[in-house]
Amino acid sequence: MTKSASLSIIHNKYLKTLFCVFLSALLQSFCINVFITPSKLLSSGFTGLAILINKISSLFGFTIPVSLLVLILNIPLGVLCFRSIGKKFVFFSILQVILLSIFLNFHYTLLFDDLLLNVCFGGFLYGIAISLALRGNASTAGTDFIALWVSNKIGKSIFEYVFVFNSVLLLIFGYMFGWKYAGYSILFQFISTKTIDSFYKRYKLVTLEITTYHPKEICKAYIKHYRHGLSEVAGIGGYEHKELSLIHTVISFYELHDAIHLIKKIDPKAIINVISTERFVGHFYRQPLD
């Protein structure tokens, strides 16, 4: 691949990330102003913490804007994690937070007066907003930064502690502002979490079975672009009775589209069978966030 082609790919990836981050911030601000705030709900993570602090401050006769709080809570954490979890990832995540802070000052038209409709539609769209940021190889910052930073330090996931953090927020929220709204907030967060799980497939694995007459070229290009192992089995085509090869590899769903494009570019007649992988035992290289 030429240097100009490589630069073009990097440029396109940055544009894609920027586009995803912009849409994510816009949709997240829409959900907060149209569904969360009017329905007196609480979202998860540092955005939820910002909303909770905003509500508590209003009890003391002054109000700290949510748009300001998301910056105060997230930017220092982003600076702390800048070297640990990927510069590009942190940069675009902080950009998402800055755009969110700006978009929160926009005025949106309310859609529903019904609390349950706001919970269901809001939870779904809020999950889409977070999925957009993740799909662009960024995040909505906050607890994502903490979880990734600590995971890199100790080598294990701490998302169960993130769950405890959100639970504590809900307990404080329910005690101070009513258990009814805390209960609806749990439903809101459940819907948004299930939506993220449905739309964001970075950690899902798939098996590729590639039937081709050009195994050497495909293997060489694949190894150059990906760090996953692959195996090649010689065979005979049942229709033309010509020698061919069956290449077998496991890849993340996140890389699937680019891998198929790479294979088809080398061999347009290649047959690619994509199989969902429920469990994979062995070492698997996962592409860094940056």
From TrEMBL:
Domain DUF2179, first and last residues per copy: 229-282
Cell compartments where the protein resides: Cell membrane
InterPro entries: DUF2179 (IPR019264), N-reg_PII/ATP_PRibTrfase_C (IPR015867), UPF0750_membrane (IPR051461), YitT (IPR003740)
Bilayer topology annotation: Multi-pass membrane protein
Membrane-traversing stretches: 14-36, 56-82, 89-109, 115-137, 158-179
Keywords: Cell membrane, Membrane, Transmembrane, Transmembrane helix
Pfam families, per the entry: DUF2179, YitT_membrane
Any one annotated GO CC term: plasma membrane
Record carries keyword Cell membrane: yes
Main location: membrane
Record protein name field: Uncharacterized membrane-anchored protein YitT, contains DUF161 and DUF2179 domains
Organism from which the protein derives: Sharpea azabuensis
